[in-house]
Structures are given as C-alpha cells and as structure tokens.
Design brief:
Length: 204
C-alpha cells in the first residue's frame, strides 16, 4: 500500500524519527556527506534535514503537449537541478472525470470544455516533487499562465507560446497539491521515502 497524500503532506514521521535518533542535524557535516551518510531510502533525518525544515509538495504534470513534444526530460531536469526530490512519477491517460475534477474551480469558464479535452487528448506525466517551499518555488519555475507573459528562463517562458498549450501544470498551493496528489495517485501513490546522497550539499 502506498503512502497517502495526507501522510506526505504531514511530512511523515521519517524525518522526526531520524532527528530524534541523531539529535541536531548540524551533526551532519561535510565528512558525513562525503561518506554518503544518510543515503538511499533511510529516514530524512539521516539525510541531514532539520526538524523544522519545510516539506511541501507539488504535483506537476507535463501536459499532453509536453509529452508529445519530448520535453518531459527537460522539465524533470529543471526540478532535479533545482534540488527538488522526485517522489513519484507515472505516465497516465487522464479520464475525463479526473480532468473535470482537477479543474473544477474553472468549470464556469468558457474554456473549461476545451481545457478538459486538451488534458485528455494524450498521455500526461504526473509527478510528485518534494523540497523546501516546493509549491511556490515550482510555480516560479513554471512561469505565468500565458507563456507570452512568462519570464524567459521559466518552463513556459522557454518552451511554450500559447495559453492553451502551456506544457505543464503545477499546484498553486499546498492544499491544492494535497488534493491533486490524492486525485492523480490515490492509494497507489507509491512514493519512495528516499533522499539523494547529495542532500547535505543542497540543504543545510
Ligand atoms: P495550471 O493550473 O494548468 O498550472 O495553470 P495556472 O495555474 O497557471 O492557470 P489557471 O488559471 O489555473 O488555468 C488553468 C489552465 O486553463 C487554461 N487557461 N486558459 N483561455 C484562457 O484565458 C485560459 N486561462 C487559463 C490554461 O491552459 C491554464 O494552464
Ligand atoms: Mg491552476
């Protein structure tokens, strides 16, 4: 059974277990990092995160145009390079009901029907990324809704030209991320509780 969205949102207890075991994570110094301490699937505390570290989640989707255009790898690289940690990923043919639920806040908009059709028009790649302030940070990396207004250097600013083909969706709040993770991954979320060995070089 996978990890539920609410467990993810609460940051689970892995980090707390680790922190309790090891005391202050300031104990994890460069020598620890050099030895790869805290590697792999051990608790987050072992990976060098402080107990008060933010743990937010983003459910990012490469939309059908992103998949068709072969920019999924680039999008993944951007989040990886930022220092976020990939917790789950799947390629998915989105059922209409899921698309309608996902964008339910926009159901009164004139473009709602086209938006749902677009999301269902081809495979999407659903991802869960984790990191400090991940939701806000990912939104900044994704850029404005209209790619012509997205700053160069953002995903939409660099890879898209039209609002109806803006390549990627990102959760707009922690609450939205929780809802979207549950909607897109449900019980079979299958997140791996892991931290890269490089974490102590990315996060204090
Ligand atoms: P998203 O949810 O897809 O990440 O996009 P967003 O937060 O930047 O923008 P949102 O207002 O949530 O809109 C969701 C998607 O609806 C389409 N849209 N079309 N024709 C229009 O004026 C219009 N406005 C929004 C876009 O595909 C947008 O990504
Ligand atoms: Mg939105």
């Amino acid at each position: 059974m996978g990890i539920m969205a609410r467990d993810l949102a609460s940051g689970d207890d892995a980090g707390r277990r680790g922190s309790t075991r090891r005391g202050s994570t300031r104990e994890l110094d460069a020598r620890d990092a050099g030895r790869g301490r805290g590697a792999g699937t051990r608790g987050r505390g072992d990976a060098g995160l402080t107990e008060s570290a933010e743990r937010f989640f983003v459910s990012s989707r490469c939309r059908p145009d992103g998949v068709q255009r072969g920019v999924v790898g680039e999008i993944i690289s951007r989040f990886e390079n930022k220092g976020m940690v990939l917790k789950a990923l799947k390629t998915y043919a989105c059922p209409k009901a899921v698309a309608e639920e996902h964008y339910r806040d926009l159901s009164s908009k004139p473009f709602f029907g086209d938006l749902v059709d677009y999301i269902c028009s081809g495979p999407v790649v659903a991802m869960i990324w984790e990191g400090p302030g991940a939701v806000k940070s990912a939104r900044l990396m994704i850029g404005a809704t209209n790619p012509l207004e997205s700053a160069p250097g953002t995903i939409r600013g660099d890879l898209a030209v039209e609002v109806g083909r803006n390549v990627i969706h990102g959760s707009d709040s922690v609450e939205s991320a929780e809802r979207e993770i549950a909607l897109w991954f449900g019980d079979e979320v299958g997140c791996v509780d892991w931290q890269p060995t490089i974490t102590p070089w990315v996060r204090e």
